[in-house]
Specification:
hydrogen ion transport, mainly alpha, cell membrane, ATP_synth_F0_bsu_bac, transmembrane, transport, 166 residues, 3 helices
Length: 166
């Protein structure tokens, strides 16, 4: 340090100060403004990027809330559709059961009517066959009884007697 103090030259100091001030002046005139403009431009760019990021974040939050709302509405609509589908299914099953019951009752009534008509037809045929057989038996008996003259007379007298009694 002592050597610095001893080697100190006032003229050299002045020249160094003048060169330093000149250098600062030149830097201020030619370099300082473009450097500051570049720094300010970069600062503005960073601010704009931060604002854009903040706006994007807010927009994403809004979109997320909107998506949640849309999902909730879609779930509610799905639930309503499923409920309607269940109700329609149950109504269709009930209608089908009712229709099956009506068809079954109609088929039973038709079967009863068919059985009754077949029964009546069978009874009529049976009566017809019984009467036919009765006539054939009666005819055979009468042929046997009326084959001789004496038996014919007895039969006629007997019938006349029955007629008078009534």
């Amino acid at each position: 340090m002592e050597k610095l103090i001893n080697d100190f030259s006032f003229g050299l100091f002045i020249w160094q100060v003048v060169i330093f001030v000149g250098l600062i002046f030149l830097l201020k005139k030619f370099a300082w403004k473009p450097i500051l403009d570049a720094v300010n431009t970069r600062e503005e760019g960073i601010k704009n990027a931060l604002l854009s990021a903040e706006n994007a974040k807010k927009e994403m939050e809004n979109l997320q809330a909107s998506n949640e709302r849309i999902l909730q509405e879609a779930r509610m609509e799905r639930d309503a559709l499923l409920k309607d589908a269940r109700e329609i299914k149950e109504k269709m099953i009930a209608d089908a059961k009712e229709e099956a019951n009506v068809q079954g009752a109609r088929m039973i009534e038709q079967a009863k009517a068919s059985i009754e008509s077949e029964k009546n037809a069978a009874m009529a045929e049976l009566k017809s066959q019984v009467s036919s057989l009765s006539l054939e038996i009666a005819e055979k008996l009468l042929k046997d009884e009326l084959s001789n003259k004496e038996a014919q007379m007895k039969l006629v007298e007997k019938m006349l007697g029955d007629v008078k009694l009534n």
